[in-house]
Amino acid sequence: MTSQASSQATSESASVIEFHVGDSAPDPLPLVTESQLVSTWIPGPPVVSILCATYQHNGFVAAALRGFLGQVTEFPFEVIVRDDASTDGTSEVVAEFARAYPNVVRHVLEPVNTWPRRKPTEAMTALAQGRFIALCEGDDYWTEPRKLQVQRD
Fold first, then answer.
1. Cis-peptide, bond into residue 116, ω within 30° of zero
2. What is the dihedral of CA 32, 36, 39, 45, to 10 degrees?
3. Half-sphere exposure (CA, 13 Å, Cβ side) for 83?
4. pTM of the model
5. Measured between alpha carbons, how far is 113 from 110 in angstroms, rounded to an integer?
């Protein structure tokens, strides 16, 4: 393959988004219903477990959950969100998503803050059913709807 053909093939298969100082953050992914989300899945157990640790992330966690639930995959995934006893309303936001997506989102609420005695990833990994683990903290979010599919492939 020539250099030009290689460059063209690369640009066709992956889009590059450039960000510059002062640019605003991309919008979170749009929400779909649980039935729309799972309609493209091949039946079976979760292939990927998305682990999301939260603490005082009320202003951010909805965008994180939208990024997870906006994923377009052919395989099942689960979302495990562990809140370490936030007092700012984070848990209530996560609980709303868990009610709307009962077969996808699991909400783990710690009654008391356990940091640093118990690391969030350790607690969630024990609950994960997926073959693969994807990590994203509650104050971050994904903007690429095929992120999980591309990484799994």
1. yes
2. 50
3. 22
4. 0.84
5. 7
